[in-house]
Amino acid sequence: MAIAIQALDSKRTELIRQSTPEAWRDARAAAIVYHACMMRIPGKGPAYRDEMMAAYLEWLATEVHPGEKIVIRSDHDHVRSGDAPDHRKSMGVRLREPYGNGIYVVGFASGDSILSLAGRPSVFLNLAGVPIDSPLGRWRAQRHLFHNAGAETAVLPKLHDGLIFVDQGHATRALGPQP
Q1: Which of 36, 51, 57, 66 is the least crowded, having the fewest Cβ atoms under 10 Å away?
Q2: Torsion sign across C-alpha atoms 97, 99, 104, 110
Q3: The pTM is what?
Q4: Residue 94 φ/ψ, nearest 5 degrees
Q5: Per-residue confidence (pLDDT) for residue 156, from 0 to 100
Q6: Does residue 93 surpass a pLDDT of 60?
Q7: Burial level of 157, CB count in 10 A (0-12/13-18/19+)?
C-alpha cells in the first residue's frame, strides 16, 4: 500500500489529467485505511495514530477543503494542546505546529465541583480569552482533576482553548418515531 500511495503522489498531475482532481483525491484518501492497518503492527499504536490523524487532517485542509473551516471530534487525549500523559505528541500538538492559533481546541467536562458552583446546567468557557491575572485566569492556571479515559490532573489551558461544561449527563434515550 505504501508503494501505491507513493505512486499516487508522484504521478498526481498525470493521474488528474487522465481523470479528475476529485478522483485522485478520493483514491489518495484510501491511505487512511493503510495507516489504520499499520497501527496493529507492534511498535506503532497511539503515537502513530496521533501522527497519522494530524497528517490526514492537514491533507483534508489543503486538498479537500482549502480555505474552509473544519470541525473535528475526538477525545481529549488526541485533541489536547499539550503533550499526552504518556509524553507522546498528540494530534492537537501536531496541528498546532502548522496552524498555530488557527485551530481552536474545545474540551468537554462534567461533574466538576468548581464549575458546578456556577449554578448553570451548562457553560461554555473561552479559556483562550481569559486574562491571566483575573480570578478565572488564576483558577484556569491551576491543576484540576479532569475526567478523561481515566482520571488525570491537568492544567486546562494546556489541554483546551475552550471548555464546554455540562453539570449532569444521562444515558441516551430513544425519542420514538419522528413525524
Answers
A1: 66
A2: negative
A3: 0.67
A4: -60, -35
A5: 66
A6: yes
A7: middle
**Residue 124 DSSP SS3:** strand
From residue 8, alpha-carbon distances to 14, 30, 39, 51, 56 in Å are: 10, 11, 22, 21, 15
User: Angle at CA 129, nearest 5°, toward 124 and 131?
Assistant: 120
Amino acid identity of residue 11, one-letter, is: K
Written as nine digits, the cell of 141 is 492556571
The gap from C-alpha 168 to its chain's centroid, in whole angstroms, comes to: 24
49-71: string of b/e by CB count within 10 Å (b at 16+)? bbbbbbbebeebbeeeeeeeeee
Cell, residue 80: 489536547
The pLDDT assigned to 13 comes to: 92
CA dihedral 144, 112, 124, 67 (to 10 degrees): 50
Chain position carrying cell 503533550: 83
| Contact of 121 with 168, CB cutoff 8 Å | yes
DSSP for 35-58 reads: HHHHTTSTT-SHHHHHHHHHHHHH
Q: Which residue has the cell 464549575?
A: 115
